[in-house]
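sry for the spam today, last one i promise. struct tokens for design, 237 residues
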């Protein structure tokens, strides 16, 4: 009678096969995670580049609007002196008169932020930076929109041009092109009309002062966000 062959379990063989399979699975998983992290990092970098480019443009607009409101405030002083029959330089009368009633609009470049929301806000790993960016676009944007476009009380041309212009029209001189070249002095208007114009100019100056303050605060906050984005991009390179 033949003896039955004894079965010997080759644990070494199966151990190494199992270990090899385990390593292969873990490696594939790690590689997949690394690839995803790399894609997310590249996406974050591109989004932040778009955001900082938009912020640069917004800061230029903010600076221009702030300077515009500063000049408009000075124009109110000029017009008050004119009405008070003080000597004024009328070479730039058009600029001063137009800027008394100038309105400025602000529409931020939201390209970068729209890209961010489409990818998901969590694509930005820095929690503070993510909060700063979303706060700017969701809060300050609404504030400026309401101040410059939706708030009837601060609409300079709509509220104040015709009441002031109707009083001063008799003193205006125009060239052949229909351009204002002079507002003749002395200006002799009733005390009531003068007080009305004073009150309009006071309201305009107050509005300008408020807008200048808001633009200054926004500019300061925006520069913080801008620097934060730039620092993050530098660290990613």
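last one done:
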């Amino acid at each position: 009678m033949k003896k039955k062959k004894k079965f010997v379990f080759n644990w070494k063989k199966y151990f190494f096969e199992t270990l090899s399979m385990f390593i292969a699975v873990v490696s594939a998983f790690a590689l997949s995670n690394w690839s995803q992290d790399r894609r997310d990092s590249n996406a974050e970098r591109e989004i932040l580049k778009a955001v900082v480019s938009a912020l640069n443009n917004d800061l230029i607009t903010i600076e221009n609007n702030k300077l515009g409101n500063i000049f408009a405030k000075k124009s109110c002083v000029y017009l008050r002196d004119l009405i008070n029959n003080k000597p004024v330089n009328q070479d730039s009368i058009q600029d001063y008169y137009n800027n008394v009633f100038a309105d400025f609009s602000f529409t931020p470049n939201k390209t970068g932020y729209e890209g961010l929301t489409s990818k998901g806000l969590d694509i930005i790993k820095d929690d503070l930076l993510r909060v700063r960016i979303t706060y700017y676009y969701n809060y300050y944007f609404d504030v400026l929109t309401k101040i410059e476009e939706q708030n009837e009380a601060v609409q300079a041309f709509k509220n104040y041009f015709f009441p002031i212009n109707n009083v001063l029209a008799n003193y205006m001189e125009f060239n052949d092109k229909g351009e204002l070249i002079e507002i003749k002095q002395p200006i002799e208007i009733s005390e009531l009309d003068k007080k009305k114009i004073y009150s309009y100019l006071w309201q305009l100056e107050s509005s300008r002062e408020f807008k200048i303050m808001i633009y200054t605060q926004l500019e300061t906050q925006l520069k913080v966000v801008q620097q934060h984005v730039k620092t993050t991009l530098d660290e990613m390179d």
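The first strand starts at residue 172 and ends at 174. ok im logging off now
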